[in-house]
Design brief:
- With 117 residues, this protein is mainly alpha-helical.
- Helix content is 62%, strand content 0%.
- Bound molecules: the ligand Cn1cc(C(=O)NCCN)ccc1=O.
- The ligand Cn1cc(C(=O)NCCN)ccc1=O binds next to helix 4.
- The site of ligand D8Q has 9 residues, from helix 4.
């Protein structure tokens, strides 16, 4: 049938979930490598290797300026943070381990939030 706009309460729920999830990611002990964009001037190779940089402050800015249509688009950006981290860092490194910890935390939390509905 014709593409119907999503009922607003679903959008409201998605937006609430994004706000909850992002706040918890930002507050996590292992969030420090991901809070702000990687400084491509001081991190050799990053600009060349990572085609689509992403970080929690950029996600925060996009969320606050209505740039996420739905929960899926938000989850894609969060996963981009962790995929970039895996690409650029050894698993057995401070930042590599932080990325794995944060991804595990995120997967668990959005599954819990979705199940609560
Ligand atoms: C996620 N990530 C962060 C850094 C970094 O140096 N962040 C500044 C922490 N104060 C370097 C590589 C990388 O993939």
């Amino acid at each position: 049938c014709a593409k119907m706009p999503k009922p607003s309460q679903d959008n409201d729920r998605d937006l609430t979930f994004c706000r909850i999830l992002l706040a918890e990611l930002e507050d996590h002990h292992d969030a420090w490598p991901f809070l702000n964009p990687v400084n491509i001037k001081t991190v050799p190779g990053y600009r060349k290797v990572i085609k689509k940089p992403m970080d929690f402050s950029t996600i925060r800015e996009k969320l606050c300026s209505c740039q996420y249509q739905n929960l899926e688009m938000f989850i894609i950006d969060v996963n981009l943070v962790f995929d970039n981290c895996e690409k650029f860092n050894e698993d057995n490194s401070e930042i590599g381990r932080a990325g794995h910890n944060m991804r595990k935390f995120f997967e668990r939390r959005w599954t819990e939030l979705l199940k609560s509905n």
